[in-house]
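Next up, sample data:
>
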Amino acid sequence: MALAELVDIERNETGIAAVLQALAEEFGDRFQTGRAIREQHAHSTSYIPAQLPDGVVFAESESEVQTVVRLCATHRVPVIAFGTGTSLEGHVNAPGGGISLDLSRMNRVTAVNAQDLDCTVEPGVTREALNTHLRDTGLFFPIDPGANASLGGMASTRASGTNAVRYGTMRDNVISLRAVMPDGRIVQTGRRARKSSAGYDLTRLLIGAEGTLGIITSLTLKLYGIPQAISGGVCQFPSVDAACQTVIATIQMGIPVARIELINALGMRSLNQYSKLSYEESPCLFLEFHGSETGVAEQAELFGEIADEYGGGPFQWTNVAEERAKLWKARHDAYWAGLTLRPGAKALTTDVCVPISRLAECIGETEADIAEHGLIAPIVGHVGDGNFHVLVLIDADDPKEVADAEAFVGRLNMRAIAMDGTCTGEHGVGQGKAGYLVHELGPGLDYMRAIKSALDPDNIMNPGKILPRAQ
């Protein structure tokens, strides 16, 4: 089974030519067809081959998005939404050509309702930009996938990240949204009320749809008060199993941990090299607690006691903001750190998620698989919710290495599914995971195809993503 489902989509040359001419007249220099910019908009941080769009439009308003979609709908030309290009599974590739709709200039925070703990933003606002905008309000938006992704892209891929164990994922933090649908009409999926029983949940239908059902043009998001106190630190363990057992015990005891991240021994070696750290090359948990001054101290001490029971420790923690920032900067640099283990290699990065009770077993079997096949592949994970990532380093020009890596990822996906888990906890499906949905969802795929066909009968919205070839 090939890892990436690079579905062949027939090009509509006549329609594409008509759309290119019309967009040039409508948008002037905000419409580009140069190869370099088209390559940028098929950008992928993975090894999946780029498939270039025919042109790129830089939209600045919802009405302009509507104009592009209506034009593409009239001529049956694909349209692919683009945020910051940080997705990992070929989400922004254009297998049938068409138009890349760059939303990065739709970057306004249009409302902050501090009393209601919510805000409304355009899709090109990044998570860091939003939190900078909020800094004087005492509020913040907690979803942190690592990359400074756009919030529209984060909603489209149902992103989560390091804070998900406490604050949930994008699915839990989008109150409502607006989107341009395949026929060019605008839908508003809800209001600002925190709950509703009014009809189908269109908000969550579009969250995680990866632009295959509509293009998000506005998001209303939950906000949270900045904690009075934050403590964080690192705890080392004799084995991955001991670290995972500590995670399970911590969650089961109800300790309100905000972040709990696993780095295996090879991952720690790479972090030491890249971030100039001096930890032992053994599995580590990176943790953070949010709350009151006394609360975070008590939580840290209780965690240290649990870790000690499993042979871990000592738990080195601090409430000094600068020290915590350095720690989490190192964690967020794990991707770049991993590349130092094999200079010149490409990274095939993948993720799975399993019930937390199966986490130690799944990671243990995965490490054994890596060792058996001689791969270089550090592991990091948002283990508080059973999610972990593997960074497989390969020579992308060596067909055997690519095939070996694909085979490994295939085994990993099937291992997670066999443990009642999922082939992707947060990367999304795109092209890279499409082939495994039939194993995970079975007949559910038929209903997904029915929804796609009903909403997008001409298959213009980001075609070739999520849904695998029908067998």
Notes: The CA atoms of residues 234 and 286 lie 5 Å apart. The first strand starts at residue 31 and ends at 32.
